[in-house]
Amino acid sequence: MDGILKDNDISHVVKADKAHVWHHLIQHKPFETNDPRIIIEGKGMRVWDQNGKEYLDAVSGAVWTVNVGYGRERIANAVHENLMKMCYFANAAGNIPGALYAEKLIEKMPGMSRVYYCNSGSEANEKAFKLIRQIAHKKYGGKKTKILYRDRDYHGSTLAAMSAGGQDERNAQYGPFAPDFVRVPHCMEYRKDELGLGHLSGRDFGIAAANQIEDVILREGPETVGALCLEPVTAGGGVITPPEGYWDRVQEICQEYDILLHIDEVVCGIGRTGTHWFGYQHYGIKPDFVTMAKGVASGYAAISCMVTTEEVFEMFKSDPTDKLDHFRDISTFGGCTAGPAAALENMAIIEEEGLLENCTAMGERMMGNLKALMEKHTIIGDVRGKGLFLGCELVKDRETKEPVDEADIAAVVADCGAQGVIIGAANRSVPGRNNVIAFSPALIATAADIDTITNAVDNALTKVFG
């Protein structure tokens, strides 16, 4: 830290930040009288702000990213070594870490074959959307351009990604959006009354929820629908795990109507859900496209990947003299070696330290703790999640399921922060449904870490709701 500051003290950094930095996702009016929080150091699962306050980070960098924890010297060294040898060359040519990481990644993804490098989850999803549209022209005479997306799912902040965004508050004031993106209903069993399926449960509900996707396809015309884009577990829209039978039926529908399946693993990928490397692998899904970002390099370098099958790849191999037939796309920093170099070390750490298994075990512990809190606090209406990716939906009344106010959610988050624990929450996303507190601690979490997090939540719920 001293080397970065050089002749500037931390007060100068705060002043410069207030004067010149436009932060993500927040209103800056309060900074006229208050200082922004600046995180200056991290180690393991702990971070420290400019005032020296220590926090246990229960959301892996606030956006589900730092899967292997802070301060991993071996990742930093790998990035340094590759940058010094060959920092960047446009990805029309290859590079050593890019080739080696693609090989390792595909080993973890049976049925997939090709890796396209880019630098954010939004961008990775854009690449898949472009491929789907190009396939519509190459194979279907310009038909089958429609891309279906799900209510409450999120696929990024670029304009096309927002066109496939199921969170209306995030989308507000940014339209008009790209055409031929069509919404399908969510699959949250806790809110099944919203879907007109309140009389169903379990597998019956899951199949019926998937059938509502088929209803949309038939309404739009199967000959116009090219792809379905879904998160395996809905993330920012409320940590929604799929009901039993849902994914089996979704795949049947895609096969019946010749629809490509695009799985967005930007949050769930690289071990976040435990046991498997990817969320979709829990459900026997056979995707045509898989996109990933956040945990790929645990935030040590910018990288995302759009992964597809050999069948899709082969569609874009043809006569080289046809200048329009290949995938005419570039991601400038997809050619930077820092990303795949960091990703290789990140994957090695997960394997060597058994972090998939730890994620499963600590996820079970956290789920047990949260369910115990549910017995104590009637304000908790539902607990759900998979691995170290969990959420609690807070309601004023369990019978009516009326959501608590968003201000109350903010108060719980703030109280946990005052206790030195950073948790997450749905906010400014789904109108009237921003009532979920969320947890995604690093895969290195210990039992003591998990208990510290849930104890803080217990204290906060008691303080805010009594």
Compute the number of strand runs. 16
Q: Write down the domain tally.
A: 2
Class based on secondary structure composition and strand pairing: alpha/beta
CATH homologous superfamily (4th level) name of the largest domain: Type I PLP-dependent aspartate aminotransferase-like (Major domain)
Helix proportion range: 25-40%
Largest sheet: 7 strands, mixed
Measured between the Cα atoms of the first and last residue, the distance is 41 Å
Q: Strands across the major sheet, in which order? A: 4-10-9-8-7-5-6
Mean pLDDT: 96
State the CATH topology of the largest domain.
Answer: Aspartate Aminotransferase, domain 2
Give the low-pLDDT segments. none
Number of helices: 15
Gross morphology is globular
CATH arch. level architecture of the largest domain = 3-Layer(aba) Sandwich
CATH class of the largest domain: Alpha Beta
Portion of residues in beta strands equals 15-25%
Radius of gyration: 22 Å
